[in-house]
Write a structure and sequence with these properties.
The protein is an alpha/beta fold. It contains 21 helices and twelve strands. The chain has three domains: 2-125, Response regulator (Rossmann fold); 159-270, Alpha-Beta Plaits; 282-376 and 423-484, no CATH class. Strand 7 (194-200) and strand 8 form a beta hairpin. The modification 4-aspartylphosphate is found at residue 55.
Length: 487
């Protein structure tokens, strides 16, 4: 509904105007009536009005002065002036202030309706122009922070009015999933310090240039329902020059993803500048996780798992590092299972989980399954086979070779191993080699080809495919995410 205010020193005219047309059917709502033009100006200072209908002859303030003052307060507001006088100077004063029309008392209903329809058409056109302009600014803002082209970047900086100087600081700010978003849009559009913003997914990316006081005001005066107490405001580090914009944007995107993944509660968080970093967090190795979980019961496992993820959250670990850790835990747990048919599905879930709770729930289910199966007691021959794999995995082992060494039939030995371990000899060998490769990728400087050969694969392409199948990540990606500093 468009908001209408009526101003006239004659009470009966105000009352009559209310009854003259069906305002609601026009999409209009009379939100205030005033007989004193000075009180009307005070109201305009604090409240938005779309259409002002005002008398041009009031004792407290002349009509032309009132119209000029009202327009100065609300320049985009539509004006309709009313007068019982034929004095053209009054008419001209109203029209010079962009009044919609001049209505003579007594007011004709059809003329008033025609005038209101014209005002509504202009307001609609004005709104469309604002939307087009806003979309243009949003497009410019998005392009500016995502481009690495110097010439294009400078043109966009000039278009948005951004200046890098010591008196004001340029920052990127992220507001996570503001509800309702239109309230934040309205707030951002009135702030001079907001040079541009756009929506990325469900989040707002904002370019802010201002002093510390302006930044505090921006946060503290945000609409209550989307303020820092209800939605995380991520305040980027100061940007010294235009060359830092793109990297600061990537930094902010990583932080937004981390906040969602670790289910961070609402509240303001200042991001660290480049010169300050948290202590790097190192991914635990397969061996370390295996040792930590040795003999741990289900209840203790759940508490241990929560502690690990909480430590990652405090250390500003990325969601990628947390997923990688979860994969290592899964590898350790799966080695305890004699029957685990949906390992690939769990790997997929870990790599696509939206938050840490999903991952914890999956790993707890796998741990419960392992606890239910209990500690498997192996026969002497299977113990010997497992020992050969664990000590000679780098050799070109085969079931036939091991059977020959143990002086047993290969078919019989393969069936026995599968029955007791739950995996074939080849599957167990591949799993163990990947477990070793996980530690080598973290702890050694060997290239991937050398690691493939170290764990028993002459064909590095085959090792690559096998590793990705087992972990959901390529060896290269796994190594890159092994150690992560804070943003």
């Amino acid at each position: 509904m468009r908001k209408v205010m009526l101003v006239d020193d004659e009470y009966m005219l105000l009352r009559g105007l209310k009854l003259l047309v069906d305002w609601k059917s026009l999409g209009l709502e009379i939100i205030n009536t005033e007989q004193n033009p000075k009180l009307a100006l005070k109201y305009l200072h604090d409240n938005p009005v779309d259409i002002l209908i005002s008398d041009m002859n009031m004792p407290e303030l002349s009509g032309p002065d009132f119209v000029a003052a009202a327009k100065a307060i609300r320049p985009e507001m539509e004006l309709i002036v009313i007068s019982g006088y034929s004095d053209f100077d009054y008419v001209r004063a109203g029209l010079q202030q962009n009044a919609v029309n001049y209505l003579r008392k007594p007011i004709d209903t059809d003329e008033l309706l025609e005038t209101l329809h014209g005002a509504l058409d202009r307001l609609q056109a004005q709104q469309q122009q604002h939307q087009i302009a806003s979309l243009a600014v949003q497009t410019q803002t998005r392009t500016l922070v995502t481009t690495d082209q110097e010439m294009e970047r400078q043109q966009l900086i000039d278009a948005l009015g951004i200046q890098f100087d010591p008196t004001t600081v340029v920052r990127l700010i992220g507001v996570l999933n503001p509800l309702p978003p239109k309230d934040l849009v309205s707030y951002l559009q009135i702030l001079d310090a907001v040079k541009g913003f756009y929506v990325e997914g469900q989040d707002f990316i904002i370019i802010f240039q201002g002093t510390t006081d302006q930044l505090n005001i921006f946060i503290n005066e945000a609409p209550h329902q989307i303020g820092a107490e209800r939605r995380p405001f991520l305040i980027g580090a100061p940007i010294q020059d235009e060359t830092q914009l793109h990297n600061r944007y990537l930094q902010l995107r990583r932080e937004i993803a981390r906040q969602y993944f670790f289910e961070t509660a609402a509240g303001l968080r200042m991001m660290l500048p480049d010169t300050q970093q948290d202590t790097p967090l190192t991914l635990p190795s397969y061996s370390e996780v295996k040792k930590a979980l040795d003999g741990v019961d289900l209840a203790t496992f759940s508490a241990w798992l929560s502690q690990q993820f909480e430590a990652m959250k405090r250390a500003n670990a990325s969601d990628l590092l947390a997923r990688q850790f979860a994969l290592v835990v899964l590898l350790v747990l799966s080695d305890r299972l004699t029957a685990f048919d949906n390992k690939s599905a769990v790997i997929t879930m870990i790599n696509h989980a939206t938050d840490v709770s999903e991952i914890k729930a999956q790993l707890q289910r796998v741990a419960k399954l392992a606890a239910q199966q209990g500690n498997q007691q192996f026969s002497r021959n299977v113990v010997a086979m497992r020992h050969i794999i664990q000590t000679r995995y780098s050799e070109q082992l085969s079931l036939a070779m091991v059977a020959s060494e143990l002086h047993l039939n290969a078919v019989y030995l393969g069936q026995l191993f599968k029955q007791e371990v739950g995996r074939s000899f080849a599957q167990f060998l591949n799993d163990y080699r990947v477990d070793v490769a996980v530690d080598l990728l973290r702890d050694s400087d060997q290239d991937i080809g050398q690691i493939a050969e170290t764990v028993g694969y002459q064909n590095s392409s085959y090792f690559y495919k096998l590793f990705k199948k087992q972990t959901g990540m390529s060896p290269g990606d796994y190594r890159k995410a092994g150690v992560l500093s804070s943003c």
